[in-house]
Amino acid sequence: MALVEVRPTRVDTTIANEIAVHTNSGIERTAQTLTWGADEHVLLALAAAGWLYAHLVQPRQRRIANHVLTVSLATALLPHVLKSVFDQTRPDRLTVRGHQKGVPVSGQPRDAFPSGHAVHMGALASAAGLLPPTPRRLVRSVAVALSLTRIALLAHWTSDVVAGFALGAVVERLVRPLTLAKSRSRQESYSRQDKSQARS
């Protein structure tokens, strides 16, 4: 049994009730398909594939690949730890009308807080800060959209998604100095060595 019980806010229940009333099976099927884009198994596989590719083919991208894989592992583990501490019933276990309109049943019934999918997307949105402006905006828009599918599916309360997204961003920023700063200092050292050799 978890240590802390989390209750949805009044805003959470209002939003969930509105979704239950106005959703339909088409919306739910679309959201259920899109939400796979934020699934930890998919993201871990992509991060591992990117890491392997960088180390074999693109050595200049190794530090980014290391960072992405480290963040992916951290954001995959953290929600499981937190869900063992916090208990919260998912909104899809509290709606009858929603199921009649196509809302599926997802995950363990009391694992609503925080949204693991949103943790991954928050980390992705934060990491997008390393990109140029146009791809940065695109990645962040996709991250927000995929997080919102968890609310549309009534798999999580809105506060679960907001908290998860913020947590993911914090994790990415905390990991960044450990994975990128060392690599940068190494690159600067190599650059100084190259310049020194060129002069001699």
- How many β-strand stretches? 2
* Elements, N to C (H/E): EHHHHEHHHH
Mean pLDDT: 91
Biggest sheet strand line-up: 1-2
Helix % is: over 70%
Strand content: under 5%
Our measurement of the CA-to-CA distance between the termini, rounded to an integer number of angstroms, reads 68 Å
Q: What is the alpha-carbon Rg in Å? A: 20 Å
Low-pLDDT windows of residues:
none
Number of helices: 8
Structural class designation: mainly alpha
The biggest sheet amounts to:
2 strands, parallel
From the spread of the alpha carbons, the general shape counts as: globular
Care to give the gist of this entry?
The protein is mostly helical and 200 residues long. The chain has helices at 10-22, 25-34, 40-56, 62-85, 97-100, 116-127, 133-152, 158-199, and strands spanning 4-5, 86-87.
List keywords for this structure.
mainly alpha, two-stranded parallel sheet, 8 helices, 71% helix
Describe the model.
By secondary structure, this protein is mostly helical. The protein has 8 helices and 2 strands. The protein has helices at 10-22, 25-34, 40-56, 62-85, 97-100, 116-127, 133-152, 158-199; strands spanning 4-5, 86-87. The protein has a two-stranded parallel sheet. Helix 6 (116-127) packs parallel to helix 8 (158-199). The model has no long low-confidence stretch (mean pLDDT 91).
